[in-house]
Target: EamA domain-containing protein
Amino acid sequence: MPYAGESAALLTSACWALNSVCFTLAGRRVGSASVNLVRLLLAWVLLAGLHLVLFGSAFPLHAGGARLGWLALSGLIGFALGDAVLFEAFLLIGARLAMLLMTLSPVFSALLAWIWLKQDLGLLKLAAMAVTLAGIAWVVWGDGDREAHPHLLRGVLLGIGGALGQSVGLLFSLYGLSGGYSPVSANLIRVSAGLLALAAYFAFTRRLGPSLDGLRDRPAAGLIALGAATGPVLGVIFSLVAIARAPMGVAATLMSLAPVFLLPVAHWGFKEKVGVHAILGTALALAGAAALFFV
Model:
């Protein structure tokens, strides 16, 4: 299918925009920790059922040790750690700003490729990074955003942590997807690792029961279920298809468009002040992220 990877990347952005709204609304009702655990639990059930239908087993037991290791590490970093701080950012600064900070993921991906894969990082790439940072700074430090979000600095730092977690998770996923491995199987392994890590942590800290109480709040549970279907299930599957079928730069750029989808949602849905500086700053950040992979 022509442009399968590019189409999957666009669908990824749409899914991530929708699930960020769902998780923001649910988090305001039951807290970010409950959202993170419950959505992985629901996502695991959905993925295991899908895997059973497609491959005849509820889990890819024959993935191989190396592949399991890379994908499990990717899930631990991306789902258990990266998304934990991202969901807290949703509560502190809202879905729009938090997802804009995720535009830093291509920047971190380029830096990781430079460090880990020894890929070249020249002046033009550094300039593209600077443009991305300038666009984000223009939006984040606008007067309206400071007034609307009293915990802006903390939320920004958490959002940056979410972007870094996504970049590291995607890097490790590339190793797990080698040889044309199924994105559905890969995602199930990633979600399983993230779920086990979170469940173990909450059990150790005696917060497992309270965290699962989010299922008792029906509106929150419905939002988490929709977010789980569009985020850890469809969104991540689309993202894995994108990085497997399209050039990494094109895929990363198209997967960064969620902040654009969220501008009208923030304005009309969350009643946020979305001025000219927010629109232009978002466009500047996305332009820098796109240029990063084409220079």
Remarks:
- Residues 4-292 form one domain.
- The two ends are 27 Å apart (CA to CA).
